[in-house]
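Title: Prediction job returns without error message
Component: structure pipeline
Severity: low
Priority: P3
Assignee: unassigned

Description:
Job completed but the reporter wants confirmation the result is attached to the right record. Sequence as submitted:
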Amino acid sequence: MVSLVGQEAIDSPPLDDVGQVVDLYRHGFQIEPHTRTHANLGDISSEKAWEEVHGSRMDLEEKVSAAINLFAYPYGREHQTTEGNRELVKKAGFHRGCSCYGGINH
């Protein structure tokens, strides 16, 4: 199940509201961030990438009142999972990052 929650996101599909996400979490679903706006981390500045990555963790932890440790890279290809972006994910406090291509990201 994939869901988008945020202030800015693509026009469709409809966004889940925060209450739905919290309810899923309370019913045992693992909820992890995917940036704030589904930004392509390979096409934005490191400053904007930091806001997207770190901000998504802070936003979600506040909503579910729990530690968030896994990050899913939007688009998840090599272009988005550069060494610099992997370092941002680590700096933001994530323990793991996952992508769509083979191998270990970090």
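Comment from assignee: result matches the submitted record. Strands lie at 70-72, 96-98.
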